[in-house]
């Protein structure tokens, strides 16, 4: 089973090092190596990825099928686009409840992986300040199945707009 790794944003550092190394050897071969080196450094696109968030969510959905967790979770089921970051932060906080209640290592790891990827995706968009949005505690409480359905919906929204 594949657990997607959170991505590290090291590309620009690598390129900068490349540039330092090669600026003294600007022969034709040197330029060639420089270009190749930077190309491969930037290849594994280090942007965090909402597709990975979505596949982790689907995995969690199928892992909890056989479990009977009757927690209810604060759920934003109709997020306004101007409040989607706030809503996503609530989803991430509430997701930990599933991990806690399920007491299952696989679910736990998937949840943590998802939170890291989604959180870094949010912060890579800059520190967006939304106002007038509902606090997590003001949201309706839903069962886990409906919670995951709404979560999937908002993750799709992020995927389609990034
Ligand atoms: C995101 O992940 C999917 C599946 O792992 C991959 O096909 C896609 O190229 C990735 N996109 C970016 C921008 O990394
Ligand atoms: C976790 O849950 C999955 C799916 O229900 C199950 O296959 C696995 O054995 C569980 N692992 C542990 C450590 O309980
Ligand atoms: C997301 O990251 C921020 C800062 O890096 C941290 O304060 C916050 O607790 C994280 N959110 C979750 C749900 O882990």
Key features?
single chain, 162 residues, mainly alpha, two-stranded antiparallel ribbon, 6 helices, binds 2-acetamido-2-deoxy-beta-D-glucopyranose
Q: What does this molecule look like?
A:
The chain has helices at 11-22, 28-42, 50-63, 84-102, 105-124, 144-161, and strands at residues 72-75, 140-143. With 162 residues, the chain is mainly alpha-helical. It has a two-stranded antiparallel sheet. Helix 3 packs antiparallel against helix 5 (105-124) and helix 3 (50-63) packs antiparallel against helix 6 (144-161). The radius of gyration is 20 Å and the shape is globular.
Termini separation comes to: 27 Å
Strand content: under 5%
Shape: globular
How many helices? The count is 6
Radius of gyration: 20 Å
């Amino acid at each position: 089973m594949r657990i997607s790794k959170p991505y590290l944003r090291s590309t620009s550092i690598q390129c900068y090092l490349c540039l330092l190394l090669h600026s003294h050897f600007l022969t034709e071969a040197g330029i060639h190596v420089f270009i190749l080196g930077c190309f491969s450094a930037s290849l594994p696109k280090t942007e965090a990825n909402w597709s990975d968030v979505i596949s982790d969510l689907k995995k969690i959905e199928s892992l909890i099928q056989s479990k009977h967790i009757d927690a209810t979770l604060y759920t934003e089921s109709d997020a306004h686009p101007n409040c989607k970051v706030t809503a996503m932060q609530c989803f991430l906080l509430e997701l930990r409840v599933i991990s806690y209640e399920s007491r299952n290592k696989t679910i736990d790891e998937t949840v943590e992986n998802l939170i890291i990827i989604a959180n870094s995706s949010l912060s890579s968009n800059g520190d967006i300040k939304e106002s007038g949005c509902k606090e997590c505690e003001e949201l309706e409480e839903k069962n886990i199945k409906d919670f995951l359905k709404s979560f999937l919906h908002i993750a799709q929204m992020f995927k389609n707009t990034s």
